[in-house]
Write a structure and sequence with these properties.
Layout lengths: L1 H22 L2 E8 L10 E4 L5 E3 L5 E7 L4 E5 L6 E4 L5 E5 L10 E4 L2 E4 L7 E4 L1 H7 L5 H4 L7 E4 L11 E4 L11 E4 L2 E2 L10 E7 L2 H4 L10 E6 L6 E13 L11 H14 L8 H12 L11 H4 L5 H5 L3 E13 L3 E12 L8 E15 L2 E15 L3 H8 L29 H5 L5 E8 L1
Parallel strand pairs: 1-7, 13-16
Antiparallel strand pairs: 1-4, 2-3, 2-5, 5-6, 8-9, 10-15, 11-12, 13-14, 15-16, 17-18, 18-19, 19-20, 20-21, 21-22
Helix pairs in contact: 5-6
């Protein structure tokens, strides 16, 4: 009997809960408008996770029946951001849909401010550099622009760290002298490669006279407008981005690194043009015998490996390395103020000995809205760098002229090669590379 009463009670409670749940469903109505208050007809209003829904009428009104408090309504319309609204205890929901910037609705930075791409009359290219910097490592901005905009030619003639900035031509050669475009960074003239790539939000390239007219004759070769990142309101964000890349030389030139073989080839070349042979057979034999016994001592007590060296200068000066690029940024803000602080570090040893660079960058972007017509702020940035002073150009030039051996003993001609016709200065490539000692330290500050 008791078990029967318990089952009956449970059944009654379940039935009451079902009735209560059913009784809490009700009709929802409302209106959908845009930010100007105009009604939006044809907006899809759907109960999330179901096929139940409706569309708004010509006045933007909608009505959905039998909706529970746990329901979430999804509002979607072409050109507008899809919005989800929990129903809760509401019976009337009025919602404003925001525009979604797509395609021609994108905002482009131009000389006079910002403008929607659809309203542009001049030739302007815009590059979302913030996304690009997250997709691939880069050490300078100018060379990273290659292939990103039509009519923009990027020429890089040097891979030496710190000197690897590219020459940029906007629509070819515009003047007879300087053909570099005008670079504006946050409203101030500057250099592209002085900015940390990770600090850039977007880059706009003004290509014709109509779009660059505000800058006058200085824009004859085009204008590159750089906009850096700034803080976002009502949140705090800490971002670390680090890249490690491995570099090694490929397709290196192969030189004769045996001085005896080198002398034989030089003699053969002289015979082909009916000239006197620069090396005697006795000299060639001395180098061949020394190669067989590298640790034996010569008449002056010097080991053969030192007295008769055979050096592959290509392998001596080229090196494998690891390039490091790190950036730490902190940004945030309130309803009226925003801030962004970033610190960057780059270490690129270079593929050739004593050609590396270390760079430290700093940026502080601060902005405060005093009232509805006055905004104050600062965009302060700078860098300090250390550049190795290796005599890179001269070393590579003489690399093509050198011999693999040099007589190191004092015999009245210390440091001279075997033949008078050979260049004694060109021989020791490592010495040439290091003949300028020290570091070039430089700093730049702008606000």
């Amino acid at each position: 009997m008791k078990k029967g009463l318990l089952k009956l009670s449970a059944l009654l409670i379940t039935g009451m809960m079902y009735v209560m749940s059913y009784a809490q469903t009700y009709d929802i109505q409302g209106q959908v408008t845009d930010k100007t208050g105009n009604p939006l007809p044809g907006v899809n209003v759907v109960v999330k996770g179901t096929s139940q829904g409706t569309i708004t009428d010509t006045e933007g009104h909608f009505k959905i029946a039998n909706v529970s408090p746990s329901t979430v309504l999804v509002f979607s319309f072409v050109g507008m951001k899809t919005t989800e609204v929990p129903v809760g205890n509401q019976t009337t929901i009025n919602i404003v849909l925001e525009e979604e910037l797509m395609g021609m609705e994108e905002v482009v930075v131009i000389g006079y401010g910002v403008q929607k791409k659809v309203n542009l009359t001049g030739s302007v290219s815009s590059v979302n550099f913030g996304d690009l910097a997250d997709q691939r490592p880069m050490t300078n901005v100018s060379s990273a622009l290659a292939g990103l905009s039509s009519g923009v030619v990027v020429l890089q003639s040097n891979g030496n760290p710190g000197k690897d900035g590219a020459t940029i031509l906007v629509r070819g050669l515009g003047t007879l002298n300087n053909n570099n475009p005008l670079v504006i960074i946050d409203g101030m003239e500057g250099s592209l490669d002085a900015v940390n790539p990770n600090d850039i939000e977007s880059i706009s390239i003004l290509k014709d006279a109509a779009s660059a007219a505000i800058y006058g004759s200085r824009a004859a070769n085009g204008v590159i407008l750089v906009t850096t990142k700034k803080g976002k309101k009502d949140r705090m964000n800490v971002v670390y981005n680090g890249n490690y890349s491995f570099s090694s030389p490929t397709h290196l030139m192969e030189f004769v690194n045996d001085y005896a073989t080198h002398m034989k080839l030089m003699n053969e070349s002289a015979r082909n043009i009916e000239s006197a042979e620069p090396f005697t057979q006795a000299t060639i034999d001395a180098w061949l015998n020394a190669k067989k016994n590298p640790n034996a001592l010569n008449a002056n007590g010097v080991p053969n490996r030192i007295a008769f060296p055979n050096t592959d200068w290509v392998k001596e000066i080229y090196q494998k390395n690891i390039v490091q690029d790190h950036i730490l940024s902190l940004d945030g803000g309130t309803e009226k103020s925003t801030f962004l602080l970033s610190f960057g570090y780059l270490d690129n040893p270079g593929l050739v000995d004593r050609t590396g660079i270390k760079r430290y960058t700093l940026r502080a972007n601060l902005e405060t809205n005093v009232n509805n017509w006055l905004t104050i702020g600062t965009r302060t940035w700078g860098f300090t760098q250390e550049k190795d002073l290796g005599n890179y150009d001269t070393a590579l030039e003489y690399l093509f002229q050198t011999t693999p051996g040099l007589v190191p003993e004092y015999n009245g001609k210390y440091g001279f090669p075997e033949a008078p016709g050979e260049s004694y200065y060109a021989n020791n490539i490592a010495a040439i590379l290091n003949n300028t000692l020290g570091l070039d330290r430089s700093s730049y500050f702008n606000t």
